[in-house]
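pasting for the record
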Amino acid sequence: MQVNPVSATDSTATSNAATSNAATSAFGLSFDSLLKIILTQLTYQDPLKPMDNFQFVSQLAQFSQIQIGQTTNDKLATLVTAQSNIQATGLLGRTVDIGTGTSLISGKVTSLAFDNGNSSITIKTANGSTISGISISGITQIREGN
């Protein structure tokens, strides 16, 4: 008897499928690939010496832990990026000092730019010049706007 796969029709199933495909193990295999390996083991096992139930359940639990760990890592990375972006918005209107090797540039933050999780600022210095694309990691001091 042949069984046809069921396609996901709701957003939860689609989201779970995307998470499952995004999660990869330490071996570089997706969770689906690891399950296929287990099914292949079951298909080709010796019927007179079947796999121990404890061993089978243990493998499934390990694969599940790998998927959960990878999903958690992905969500934590997203959370860290969001937190960084929120903190960056707190710089608007404040005066910052930027270390440029041997000198220090001060200016008021006039805008922010977000690109692939990286935040950069644009400052307006006391002499009126505008400097864009400054990495937030280059800020050495933050003061209230003057």
